[in-house]
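I had to read the description of the data format several times before I understood it. Each protein is reduced to its one-letter sequence and a matching series of backbone shape codes. The format is easy to grasp once an entry is in front of the reader. For illustration, here is how one protein appears when written out as sequence plus structure tokens:
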Amino acid sequence: MTVPSGLTSGTWSFDPAHSEVGFSVRHAGISKVRGSFKDVDASLTVGSSLEDSSITATIRTASFTSGDENRDGHVKGADFFDVEQFPEMTFVSTSHTGSGETYEIHGDLTIRGITKAVVLDAEFNGVAVDPFGATRAGVSASTTISRKDFGLTWNAALEAGGVLVGDKVTITIEAAFVAPAVVTV
């Protein structure tokens, strides 16, 4: 399979200023709570074909923020991410399928030291040259995981039935990458 149009071979750098990695989870069965990670590093290595290409990402769990200091402290603690013992989450792609704008990125997601295979539904948003001459590519992706699969089992029963935190977590990614510098001799 061919790589998306406009992607040149080499390792593309992650652009954290124009990217976001976040998630949402059902709270008390009636609303969704969202959070994001501010310290993320990733790379997109483009090979001669889709099969020769890869994506890796490292997310520092202590960079989690939801806009609520008390909740952030709880989520960073031992009940959830346990940032002291598990300072990073990682994703390493294993294969890619698709064409045009729509892809599936298969890979291994590791949270709290537990690795599970996941599939990201991805949309290739294209390539553009910015006003400063840098070539950029954009990707949107999402997947839904069971937090229990990753040892995130803390919960509290609700008086009316059900639990405080849902099991399904939707992970969303908006990623921008910058093309490798072209070396001229």
Summary: The domain at 10-23+34-147+170-178 is CATH 2.40.128.110 (Lipocalin).
